[in-house]
Write a structure and sequence with these properties.
It is a single chain. The protein has a five-stranded mixed beta sheet with strand order 1-2-3-4-5, with helices on both faces. The chain is globular and about 45 Å long. It has one domain (5-130): Gcn5-related N-acetyltransferase (GNAT) (Aminopeptidase). It is built from four helices and five strands. Helix 1 (14-25) crosses helix 2. The protein has helices spanning 14-25, 30-40, 93-107, 122-130, and strands at 5-8, 47-54, 57-67, 76-84, 113-115. The structure holds coenzyme A (COA).
């Protein structure tokens, strides 16, 4: 599919993003998406929320942010989440969303991207590997806190 465009999200896109993310993850989080949109829309924001559209039809989204020096890491672009409408997958929309976000990161001066995925997320793993991402130098550690 080539007749679509990618642009920054507007308030009118939030419902579609929330709806697709809920269908993908099973967890509705409208406040999270609204908060993200408000932060990334602010002047000088270092985050991006992009949507793929064909005319007025919503096709998918991607979001990410530039973070610096947490965990000792130099500035890099983190991809936080993405989704493409299920019936429109494997037509290159996810790749174009990725390319557009990488372009935003490059324009902002970063030269590396990172993401984190669940170990059993084979589809997302295949997608990111096809786009050239490989295991990096960090590992995640976690622990449940007692009440
Ligand atoms: C991952 C996702 C964004 C890919 O979107 P897409 O529009 O289908 O991606 P593309 O068509 O650009 O595919 C790019 C590459 O990813 C890989 N890929 C995509 N879907 C795949 C599948 N079902 N099986 C294996 N590889 C796949 C392929 O290598 C593909 O390249 P190819 O078609 O040349 O082989 C989409 O499947 C999706 O939204 N999945 C759910 C995402 C999710 O779980 N989000 C929540 C956590 S962030």
């Amino acid at each position: 599919m080539s007749n679509f465009t990618i642009r920054p999200a507007t308030p009118a896109d939030i419902d579609a993003i929330v709806d697709l993310d809920t269908r993908i993850t099973g967890m509705p989080k409208r406040e999270y998406w609204q908060g993200l949109f408000q932060r990334y829309g602010a002047p000088g924001a270092e985050g991006f929320l992009l949507v793929a559209m064909r005319e007025n039809a919503f096709l998918g989204f991607i979001t990410g942010e530039i973070r610096a020096w947490e965990f000792g890491s130099p500035p890099c672009g983190w991809i936080f989440a993405l989704g493409v409408e299920p019936e429109l997958r494997l037509e290159g929309i996810g790749t174009k969303l990725f390319d557009a976000l990488c372009h935003c990161f490059k324009q902002a001066g970063v030269t590396k991207i990172r993401t984190m995925i669940a170990r059993d997320a084979q589809l997302v793993m295949s997608y990111f590997r096809s786009l050239g991402l490989r295991a990096g130098p960090f590992i995640e550690l976690e622990k449940d806190l007692d009440e």
